[in-house]
Design a protein that fits this description.
The chain is an alpha/beta fold. The chain is built from 12 helices and 21 strands. The strands form 5 sheets. Strands 9-7-5-2-10-1-11-16-20-21 form a 10-stranded mixed beta sheet, with helices on both faces. Strands 15, 17, 18 and 19 form a 4-stranded mixed beta sheet that branches. It has a 3-stranded antiparallel beta sheet with strand order 12-14-13, with helices on one face. Helix 3 packs across helix 4 and helix 5 crosses helix 6. It binds guanosine-5'-diphosphate (GDP).
Length: 427
Amino acid sequence: MVKAVVGANWGDEGKGKITDMLAKEADIIVRFQGGANAGHTIVNDYGKFALHTLPSGVFYGHTTSVIGNGVALNIPVLMEEIKSITDKGVPAPKILVSDRAQIVMPYHILFDQYEEERLGGKSFGSTKSGIAPFYSDKYAKTGFQVSELFDEALLKEKTERVCEAKNVLLEHLYHKPLLDPRKLLETLHGYREMIEPFVCDVSSFLDRAVKERKTVLLEGQLGTLKDPDHGIYPMVTSSSTLAAYGAIGAGIPPYEIRQIITVCKAYSSAVGAGAFVSEIFGEEADELRRRGGDGGEYGATTGRPRRMGWFDCVASKYGCRLQGTTDVAFTVLDVLGYLDEIPVCVGYEIDGEVTTEFPVTAKLEKAKPVLEILPGWKTDIRGIRTYEELPENCRKYIEFIEEELGYPITMISNGPGRNDIIYRDKD
Ligand code: GDP
Protein backbone atom coordinates (compact mmCIF):
# COMPACT_ATOMS: atom_id res chain seq x y z
CA MET A 1 0.00 0.00 0.00
CA VAL A 2 1.46 3.33 -1.05
CA LYS A 3 0.28 6.53 0.64
CA ALA A 4 1.36 10.08 -0.06
CA VAL A 5 1.59 12.92 2.44
CA VAL A 6 1.57 16.24 0.62
CA GLY A 7 0.80 19.92 1.22
CA ALA A 8 -2.26 21.85 0.00
CA ASN A 9 -0.73 25.29 0.22
CA TRP A 10 2.66 27.02 0.29
CA GLY A 11 4.40 24.43 2.47
CA ASP A 12 4.99 24.35 6.23
CA GLU A 13 1.57 22.82 6.76
CA GLY A 14 2.94 20.27 9.23
CA LYS A 15 3.63 17.41 6.79
CA GLY A 16 6.70 16.36 8.78
CA LYS A 17 4.65 15.71 11.89
CA ILE A 18 1.95 13.79 9.98
CA THR A 19 4.56 11.68 8.15
CA ASP A 20 6.45 11.00 11.37
CA MET A 21 3.19 9.91 12.96
CA LEU A 22 2.13 7.67 10.05
CA ALA A 23 5.65 6.27 9.81
CA LYS A 24 4.94 4.29 12.96
CA GLU A 25 2.83 1.94 10.83
CA ALA A 26 4.97 2.20 7.69
CA ASP A 27 7.93 0.23 6.37
CA ILE A 28 9.44 2.67 3.91
CA ILE A 29 9.38 6.46 3.67
CA VAL A 30 10.38 8.08 0.40
CA ARG A 31 11.33 11.62 -0.53
CA PHE A 32 10.46 12.06 -4.19
CA GLN A 33 11.13 15.72 -5.06
CA GLY A 34 12.80 18.90 -3.84
CA GLY A 35 16.03 19.17 -1.98
CA ALA A 36 17.55 20.73 1.08
CA ASN A 37 15.75 24.01 0.40
CA ALA A 38 12.82 23.43 2.73
CA GLY A 39 12.62 21.71 6.05
CA HIS A 40 10.37 19.65 8.23
CA THR A 41 10.33 20.21 11.95
CA ILE A 42 9.76 17.13 14.03
CA VAL A 43 9.34 16.83 17.76
CA ASN A 44 9.76 13.38 19.31
CA ASP A 45 11.31 11.59 22.27
CA TYR A 46 14.84 12.33 21.02
CA GLY A 47 14.27 16.09 20.83
CA LYS A 48 13.38 18.65 18.17
CA PHE A 49 14.85 18.24 14.68
CA ALA A 50 14.85 20.20 11.46
CA LEU A 51 15.19 17.78 8.55
CA HIS A 52 15.93 19.00 5.04
CA THR A 53 16.80 15.96 2.98
CA LEU A 54 16.04 12.95 5.14
CA PRO A 55 12.48 11.70 5.18
CA SER A 56 10.53 12.13 8.41
CA GLY A 57 10.59 8.41 9.24
CA VAL A 58 14.29 8.31 10.17
CA PHE A 59 13.56 8.26 13.87
CA TYR A 60 12.06 4.77 13.90
CA GLY A 61 14.20 1.65 13.97
CA HIS A 62 11.83 -0.31 11.72
CA THR A 63 11.68 2.01 8.70
CA THR A 64 13.85 2.39 5.62
CA SER A 65 14.37 5.98 4.46
CA VAL A 66 14.63 6.43 0.73
CA ILE A 67 15.89 9.35 -1.33
CA GLY A 68 14.18 8.91 -4.68
CA ASN A 69 15.41 9.81 -8.14
CA GLY A 70 13.30 13.00 -8.18
CA VAL A 71 15.22 14.59 -5.32
CA ALA A 72 17.93 17.25 -5.66
CA LEU A 73 20.57 15.41 -3.67
CA ASN A 74 23.07 17.53 -1.79
CA ILE A 75 25.52 14.86 -0.61
CA PRO A 76 27.44 16.80 2.09
CA VAL A 77 24.18 18.16 3.51
CA LEU A 78 22.76 14.62 3.67
CA MET A 79 25.88 13.43 5.50
CA GLU A 80 25.66 16.31 7.98
CA GLU A 81 22.02 15.60 8.57
CA ILE A 82 22.67 11.94 9.32
CA LYS A 83 25.39 13.00 11.76
CA SER A 84 23.16 15.60 13.41
CA ILE A 85 20.57 13.00 14.32
CA THR A 86 22.96 10.21 15.37
CA ASP A 87 24.85 12.75 17.53
CA LYS A 88 21.62 13.26 19.46
CA GLY A 89 21.29 9.55 20.17
CA VAL A 90 18.99 8.47 17.31
CA PRO A 91 20.05 4.96 16.13
CA ALA A 92 21.74 5.04 12.69
CA PRO A 93 18.84 5.01 10.21
CA LYS A 94 18.63 2.66 7.24
CA ILE A 95 19.01 4.92 4.20
CA LEU A 96 18.87 4.16 0.49
CA VAL A 97 19.69 6.67 -2.21
CA SER A 98 18.54 6.18 -5.78
CA ASP A 99 21.33 5.58 -8.30
CA ARG A 100 19.26 7.82 -10.60
CA ALA A 101 19.04 10.76 -8.20
CA GLN A 102 20.97 13.76 -9.44
CA ILE A 103 23.54 15.67 -7.45
CA VAL A 104 23.42 19.28 -6.35
CA MET A 105 26.84 20.56 -7.38
CA PRO A 106 28.76 23.26 -5.52
CA TYR A 107 28.33 25.52 -8.55
CA HIS A 108 24.53 25.16 -8.40
CA ILE A 109 24.61 26.85 -5.03
CA LEU A 110 26.92 29.58 -6.34
CA PHE A 111 24.78 30.19 -9.41
CA ASP A 112 21.71 30.45 -7.18
CA GLN A 113 23.41 33.19 -5.14
CA TYR A 114 24.83 34.97 -8.17
CA GLU A 115 21.49 35.00 -9.95
CA GLU A 116 19.70 36.40 -6.89
CA GLU A 117 22.38 39.11 -6.67
CA ARG A 118 21.99 39.87 -10.37
CA LEU A 119 18.18 40.13 -10.10
CA GLY A 120 18.40 42.35 -7.02
CA GLY A 121 14.93 43.48 -5.97
CA LYS A 122 13.32 41.32 -8.69
CA SER A 123 14.59 38.07 -7.17
CA PHE A 124 12.37 35.04 -6.53
CA GLY A 125 13.23 34.81 -2.83
CA SER A 126 15.32 31.68 -3.36
CA THR A 127 16.71 29.82 -0.34
CA LYS A 128 20.02 29.73 -2.29
CA SER A 129 20.30 25.97 -1.97
CA GLY A 130 20.97 25.60 -5.68
CA ILE A 131 17.57 24.10 -6.46
CA ALA A 132 16.63 26.14 -9.55
CA PRO A 133 20.08 25.81 -11.22
CA PHE A 134 20.05 22.11 -10.32
CA TYR A 135 16.71 21.37 -11.99
CA SER A 136 17.61 23.62 -14.95
CA ASP A 137 20.69 21.45 -15.54
CA LYS A 138 18.74 18.24 -15.01
CA TYR A 139 16.33 19.12 -17.80
CA ALA A 140 19.09 20.64 -19.95
CA LYS A 141 20.67 17.17 -19.59
CA THR A 142 23.91 18.45 -18.08
CA GLY A 143 23.23 17.18 -14.56
CA PHE A 144 25.17 14.41 -12.79
CA GLN A 145 23.37 11.22 -11.76
CA VAL A 146 24.64 9.38 -8.69
CA SER A 147 25.43 6.39 -10.92
CA GLU A 148 27.82 8.56 -12.96
CA LEU A 149 30.07 9.05 -9.94
CA PHE A 150 31.17 5.47 -10.49
CA ASP A 151 32.30 5.92 -14.09
CA GLU A 152 35.64 7.71 -13.88
CA ALA A 153 36.18 8.33 -17.60
CA LEU A 154 32.71 9.78 -18.03
CA LEU A 155 33.07 11.88 -14.91
CA LYS A 156 36.35 13.41 -16.06
CA GLU A 157 35.09 14.24 -19.54
CA LYS A 158 31.81 15.62 -18.22
CA THR A 159 33.33 17.84 -15.51
CA GLU A 160 35.56 19.43 -18.15
CA ARG A 161 32.67 19.94 -20.55
CA VAL A 162 30.38 21.39 -17.90
CA CYS A 163 33.04 23.74 -16.47
CA GLU A 164 33.72 25.11 -19.94
CA ALA A 165 30.11 26.15 -20.36
CA LYS A 166 29.63 27.40 -16.79
CA ASN A 167 32.80 29.47 -16.99
CA VAL A 168 31.42 31.50 -19.88
CA LEU A 169 28.54 32.61 -17.65
CA LEU A 170 30.78 33.13 -14.63
CA GLU A 171 33.13 35.34 -16.58
CA HIS A 172 30.75 37.35 -18.73
CA LEU A 173 27.41 37.40 -16.92
CA TYR A 174 28.30 37.21 -13.24
CA HIS A 175 31.94 38.42 -13.20
CA LYS A 176 32.87 35.81 -10.62
CA PRO A 177 35.80 33.39 -10.16
CA LEU A 178 35.94 30.53 -12.66
CA LEU A 179 35.51 26.82 -11.94
CA ASP A 180 38.52 24.50 -12.01
CA PRO A 181 37.53 21.12 -13.50
CA ARG A 182 40.29 19.29 -11.59
CA LYS A 183 39.07 20.63 -8.28
CA LEU A 184 35.49 19.76 -9.19
CA LEU A 185 36.52 16.21 -10.05
CA GLU A 186 38.19 15.90 -6.62
CA THR A 187 35.03 17.10 -4.93
CA LEU A 188 33.04 14.48 -6.83
CA HIS A 189 35.46 11.76 -5.71
CA GLY A 190 34.72 12.83 -2.14
CA TYR A 191 30.97 12.66 -2.85
CA ARG A 192 31.42 9.17 -4.31
CA GLU A 193 33.03 7.95 -1.12
CA MET A 194 30.33 9.48 1.05
CA ILE A 195 27.35 8.18 -0.91
CA GLU A 196 28.58 4.71 -1.94
CA PRO A 197 27.19 2.81 1.09
CA PHE A 198 23.66 4.05 0.39
CA VAL A 199 23.33 3.70 -3.40
CA CYS A 200 20.48 1.46 -4.59
CA ASP A 201 18.20 0.74 -7.53
CA VAL A 202 15.27 2.35 -5.73
CA SER A 203 12.49 1.60 -8.21
CA SER A 204 13.29 -2.16 -8.10
CA PHE A 205 13.46 -2.02 -4.33
CA LEU A 206 10.05 -0.33 -4.19
CA ASP A 207 8.59 -2.73 -6.76
CA ARG A 208 9.49 -5.65 -4.50
CA ALA A 209 8.23 -3.81 -1.43
CA VAL A 210 4.85 -3.10 -3.04
CA LYS A 211 4.52 -6.76 -4.12
CA GLU A 212 5.31 -7.83 -0.56
CA ARG A 213 2.49 -5.54 0.60
CA LYS A 214 4.78 -3.28 2.56
CA THR A 215 3.48 0.15 3.54
CA VAL A 216 5.27 2.89 1.64
CA LEU A 217 4.87 6.59 2.47
CA LEU A 218 5.73 9.21 -0.10
CA GLU A 219 6.65 12.44 1.64
CA GLY A 220 6.12 15.65 -0.30
CA GLN A 221 7.96 18.89 0.25
CA LEU A 222 6.25 22.32 0.04
CA GLY A 223 2.67 22.30 -1.31
CA THR A 224 0.41 22.61 -4.37
CA LEU A 225 0.82 26.38 -4.67
CA LYS A 226 4.59 25.96 -5.12
CA ASP A 227 4.18 23.45 -7.96
CA PRO A 228 5.87 24.71 -11.14
CA ASP A 229 2.82 23.86 -13.28
CA HIS A 230 -0.15 24.36 -10.99
CA GLY A 231 1.25 26.84 -8.47
CA ILE A 232 1.80 30.59 -8.41
CA TYR A 233 4.34 30.59 -11.24
CA PRO A 234 7.00 32.00 -11.28
CA MET A 235 7.08 32.20 -7.46
CA VAL A 236 7.20 28.42 -7.30
CA THR A 237 9.76 25.73 -6.67
CA SER A 238 11.50 23.83 -9.46
CA SER A 239 10.14 20.31 -8.96
CA SER A 240 6.55 19.15 -8.82
CA THR A 241 5.05 19.13 -5.34
CA LEU A 242 2.08 16.98 -6.34
CA ALA A 243 1.35 13.45 -5.19
CA ALA A 244 1.18 12.39 -8.84
CA TYR A 245 4.86 13.22 -9.16
CA GLY A 246 5.51 10.71 -6.39
CA ALA A 247 5.14 8.00 -9.02
CA ILE A 248 7.88 9.55 -11.12
CA GLY A 249 10.18 10.79 -8.38
CA ALA A 250 10.17 7.38 -6.68
CA GLY A 251 9.76 5.16 -9.75
CA ILE A 252 6.49 3.41 -8.92
CA PRO A 253 3.26 2.93 -10.91
CA PRO A 254 0.82 5.83 -10.41
CA TYR A 255 -2.07 3.46 -9.63
CA GLU A 256 -0.25 2.14 -6.59
CA ILE A 257 -0.78 5.43 -4.73
CA ARG A 258 -4.01 4.53 -2.93
CA GLN A 259 -4.25 7.16 -0.25
CA ILE A 260 -3.38 10.84 -0.65
CA ILE A 261 -3.28 12.67 2.64
CA THR A 262 -3.24 16.39 1.98
CA VAL A 263 -2.08 18.47 4.88
CA CYS A 264 -3.85 21.80 5.45
CA LYS A 265 -2.93 24.16 8.24
CA ALA A 266 -5.77 25.82 10.20
CA TYR A 267 -4.44 29.23 9.12
CA SER A 268 -2.06 30.28 6.33
CA SER A 269 1.63 31.01 6.17
CA ALA A 270 4.02 31.44 3.28
CA VAL A 271 7.68 32.18 2.72
CA GLY A 272 9.21 34.06 -0.17
CA ALA A 273 7.54 36.41 -2.59
CA GLY A 274 4.27 35.94 -4.47
CA ALA A 275 0.58 36.74 -4.17
CA PHE A 276 -0.93 35.72 -0.84
CA VAL A 277 -4.56 36.82 -0.85
CA SER A 278 -5.53 36.17 2.78
CA GLU A 279 -2.32 37.72 4.16
CA ILE A 280 -2.52 39.78 7.33
CA PHE A 281 -0.08 42.39 8.61
CA GLY A 282 0.97 44.33 11.67
CA GLU A 283 0.19 43.27 15.21
CA GLU A 284 -2.49 40.80 14.08
CA ALA A 285 0.11 38.95 11.98
CA ASP A 286 2.84 39.22 14.60
CA GLU A 287 0.67 37.60 17.23
CA LEU A 288 -0.32 34.68 14.98
CA ARG A 289 3.34 34.28 13.92
CA ARG A 290 4.52 34.25 17.54
CA ARG A 291 1.90 31.72 18.59
CA GLY A 292 2.03 29.65 15.39
CA GLY A 293 3.54 26.21 14.79
CA ASP A 294 5.72 25.02 17.61
CA GLY A 295 7.62 28.08 18.82
CA GLY A 296 6.60 30.52 16.11
CA GLU A 297 6.32 30.60 12.33
CA TYR A 298 9.92 30.97 11.19
CA GLY A 299 11.52 29.08 8.27
CA ALA A 300 13.07 25.73 9.27
CA THR A 301 15.94 26.24 6.80
CA THR A 302 16.40 30.00 6.73
CA GLY A 303 14.90 31.23 10.03
CA ARG A 304 13.02 33.83 7.98
CA PRO A 305 9.75 35.06 9.55
CA ARG A 306 6.89 33.53 7.58
CA ARG A 307 4.16 35.67 6.06
CA MET A 308 0.89 35.03 7.88
CA GLY A 309 -2.76 34.91 6.84
CA TRP A 310 -6.18 33.47 7.58
CA PHE A 311 -7.26 30.11 6.25
CA ASP A 312 -7.84 30.39 2.51
CA CYS A 313 -10.65 28.11 1.32
CA VAL A 314 -10.14 29.05 -2.35
CA ALA A 315 -6.42 28.19 -2.38
CA SER A 316 -6.89 25.11 -0.18
CA LYS A 317 -9.77 23.65 -2.18
CA TYR A 318 -7.66 24.02 -5.30
CA GLY A 319 -4.63 22.66 -3.43
CA CYS A 320 -6.57 19.57 -2.36
CA ARG A 321 -8.04 19.02 -5.83
CA LEU A 322 -4.69 19.06 -7.61
CA GLN A 323 -3.23 16.64 -5.09
CA GLY A 324 -6.07 14.16 -5.67
CA THR A 325 -6.89 14.20 -1.98
CA THR A 326 -8.50 11.18 -0.29
CA ASP A 327 -7.99 12.54 3.25
CA VAL A 328 -7.31 15.96 4.67
CA ALA A 329 -5.10 16.26 7.75
CA PHE A 330 -6.04 19.57 9.38
CA THR A 331 -3.13 20.80 11.47
CA VAL A 332 -2.02 23.36 14.04
CA LEU A 333 -5.62 23.97 15.09
CA ASP A 334 -4.60 24.45 18.73
CA VAL A 335 -2.87 27.72 17.83
CA LEU A 336 -6.17 29.47 17.03
CA GLY A 337 -7.49 29.02 20.60
CA TYR A 338 -6.66 32.64 21.54
CA LEU A 339 -8.97 34.33 19.04
CA ASP A 340 -12.44 35.71 19.80
CA GLU A 341 -13.34 35.57 16.14
CA ILE A 342 -11.61 33.82 13.26
CA PRO A 343 -11.80 35.24 9.74
CA VAL A 344 -11.74 32.71 6.90
CA CYS A 345 -11.20 33.61 3.25
CA VAL A 346 -14.13 32.10 1.30
CA GLY A 347 -13.78 33.84 -2.05
CA TYR A 348 -11.60 36.11 -4.17
CA GLU A 349 -12.86 39.36 -5.58
CA ILE A 350 -11.18 40.01 -8.91
CA ASP A 351 -12.19 43.05 -10.99
CA GLY A 352 -15.46 43.34 -9.08
CA GLU A 353 -16.41 39.68 -9.45
CA VAL A 354 -16.28 37.06 -6.73
CA THR A 355 -14.91 33.62 -7.49
CA THR A 356 -14.10 30.50 -5.52
CA GLU A 357 -11.86 29.11 -8.29
CA PHE A 358 -8.13 29.67 -7.83
CA PRO A 359 -6.96 31.84 -10.75
CA VAL A 360 -3.73 32.11 -12.77
CA THR A 361 -1.03 34.35 -11.32
CA ALA A 362 -1.83 37.58 -13.18
CA LYS A 363 -5.41 37.50 -11.87
CA LEU A 364 -4.32 36.30 -8.45
CA GLU A 365 -2.24 39.46 -8.04
CA LYS A 366 -5.47 41.47 -8.28
CA ALA A 367 -7.55 39.29 -5.94
CA LYS A 368 -8.96 40.69 -2.71
CA PRO A 369 -10.13 38.31 0.00
CA VAL A 370 -13.82 37.83 0.77
CA LEU A 371 -13.83 37.02 4.46
CA GLU A 372 -16.38 35.25 6.60
CA ILE A 373 -16.02 35.58 10.36
CA LEU A 374 -16.48 32.49 12.51
CA PRO A 375 -16.66 32.52 16.32
CA GLY A 376 -13.56 31.37 18.19
CA TRP A 377 -13.53 28.78 21.00
CA LYS A 378 -11.18 30.54 23.42
CA THR A 379 -9.81 27.36 24.96
CA ASP A 380 -6.64 25.34 24.81
CA ILE A 381 -7.54 22.19 22.88
CA ARG A 382 -4.17 20.46 23.28
CA GLY A 383 -4.46 17.08 24.91
CA ILE A 384 -7.97 16.37 23.57
CA ARG A 385 -8.09 12.97 21.85
CA THR A 386 -11.64 12.62 20.55
CA TYR A 387 -13.61 14.76 18.15
CA GLU A 388 -16.64 14.98 20.44
CA GLU A 389 -14.55 16.53 23.22
CA LEU A 390 -13.56 19.49 21.06
CA PRO A 391 -15.44 22.73 21.86
CA GLU A 392 -18.52 23.23 19.71
CA ASN A 393 -17.17 26.31 17.92
CA CYS A 394 -13.99 24.42 17.12
CA ARG A 395 -15.97 21.58 15.55
CA LYS A 396 -18.01 24.18 13.65
CA TYR A 397 -14.78 25.71 12.30
CA ILE A 398 -13.59 22.29 11.12
CA GLU A 399 -16.94 21.40 9.58
CA PHE A 400 -17.23 24.78 7.86
CA ILE A 401 -13.82 24.35 6.26
CA GLU A 402 -14.52 20.74 5.32
CA GLU A 403 -17.67 21.86 3.52
CA GLU A 404 -15.79 24.59 1.67
CA LEU A 405 -12.96 22.22 0.67
CA GLY A 406 -15.19 19.39 -0.44
CA TYR A 407 -12.74 16.78 0.91
CA PRO A 408 -13.03 14.84 4.19
CA ILE A 409 -11.00 16.02 7.16
CA THR A 410 -10.13 12.70 8.76
CA MET A 411 -7.26 13.81 11.01
CA ILE A 412 -6.98 16.86 13.23
CA SER A 413 -3.64 17.80 14.70
CA ASN A 414 -3.83 19.74 17.96
CA GLY A 415 -0.19 19.91 18.99
CA PRO A 416 3.29 19.27 17.59
CA GLY A 417 3.82 15.87 19.24
CA ARG A 418 3.25 12.46 17.66
CA ASN A 419 0.23 11.78 19.84
CA ASP A 420 -1.44 15.13 19.35
CA ILE A 421 -3.93 13.82 16.83
CA ILE A 422 -7.66 13.28 16.64
CA TYR A 423 -8.90 10.72 14.12
CA ARG A 424 -12.31 11.27 12.71
CA ASP A 425 -14.24 8.36 11.31
CA LYS A 426 -15.80 9.39 8.02
CA ASP A 427 -17.39 6.06 7.05
P1 GDP B 1 6.22 20.89 7.02
O1 GDP B 1 7.32 21.44 6.21
O2 GDP B 1 4.93 20.81 6.29
O3 GDP B 1 6.58 19.61 7.69
O4 GDP B 1 5.95 21.93 8.20
P2 GDP B 1 6.98 22.58 9.24
O5 GDP B 1 7.70 21.54 9.95
O6 GDP B 1 7.76 23.67 8.64
O7 GDP B 1 5.95 23.37 10.16
C1 GDP B 1 5.15 22.78 11.00
C2 GDP B 1 5.48 23.33 12.39
O8 GDP B 1 4.34 23.20 13.16
C3 GDP B 1 6.54 22.54 13.12
O9 GDP B 1 7.21 23.38 14.00
C4 GDP B 1 5.75 21.48 13.87
O10 GDP B 1 6.38 21.00 15.03
C5 GDP B 1 4.53 22.27 14.21
N1 GDP B 1 3.29 21.52 14.26
C6 GDP B 1 2.85 20.51 13.44
N2 GDP B 1 1.60 20.16 13.78
C7 GDP B 1 1.24 20.99 14.80
C8 GDP B 1 0.05 21.16 15.56
O11 GDP B 1 -0.95 20.49 15.35
N3 GDP B 1 0.06 22.13 16.52
C9 GDP B 1 1.14 22.92 16.77
N4 GDP B 1 1.05 23.84 17.72
N5 GDP B 1 2.27 22.80 16.06
C10 GDP B 1 2.31 21.85 15.10
